[in-house]
Design a protein that fits this description.
single chain; about 190 residues; alpha+beta; three-stranded antiparallel β-sheet; 6 helices; elongated
């Protein structure tokens, strides 16, 4: 758990970026990854600090967790695990007889299936990182949407992550106070 309050360091100086990283180091097994997730959430967040349940990208609505997974996918592009997964996907498609004969089209299909499998497994990593951020006092998490015949938080319910005031001050320094911004369903990102 936290060893100091989020608003100040032990010597009562305001929390700065180095202090935030120290808090993440004490609350996460993967502090660098948690910081990347936190930074992406801050970029997707509206002025009130809330991100999700959807992000607008290229004119389409994408669930926040899917967007985070896609944004972090290039980080592992050259990892041996990703290369091995692409080879397994190619073998699986060949065995199923669903790999196109045209090399460019086959590469596109393998890449799309590899990305889909990575997105599925990455959601677990995102959830762990967000849990670490919640424990560190950087994020508040809730779910929004409609629950249909489901006993837990799934089934058409999507994650919404809200930066705490300290995280907003450090990662969105030019944002107005949370009470000024009206609630909105989607965020429009300046990139992608």
């Amino acid at each position: 758990m936290l060893h100091e309050p989020l608003h100040a360091r032990p010597d009562n100086t305001p929390l700065d970026m180095a202090g935030l990283l120290e808090i993440l180091a004490h609350n996460s097994a993967r502090p660098r990854y948690a910081f990347m997730v936190l930074n992406l959430i801050a970029r997707a967040a509206r002025p009130n600090g809330s991100a999700g349940p959807d992000v607008v990208q290229g004119g389409a609505l994408i669930p926040l967790r899917d967007w985070l997974c896609d944004a972090l996918t290039p980080m592992g592009h050259r990892e041996p695990g990703r290369i091995a997964l692409a080879l397994r996907v190619r073998r699986d498609l060949e065995a199923a007889g669903s790999l196109p004969a045209e090399p460019e089209e086959a590469e596109r299909v393998v890449e799309a299936e590899t990305r889909a499998r990575i997105r599925t497994s990455s959601k677990t990593n995102i959830s762990r990182a967000v849990s670490d951020l919640v424990r560190a006092g950087m994020i508040v998490r809730h779910y929004q949407g409609y629950r249909v015949d489901h006993h837990n938080r799934g089934a058409q319910r999507q994650a919404v992550y809200t930066l705490t005031p300290v995280a907003r001050r450090l990662l969105q320094p030019h944002s107005p106070p949370a009470t000024v911004a009206p609630p909105m369903r989607q965020a429009s990102l300046p990139f992608g």
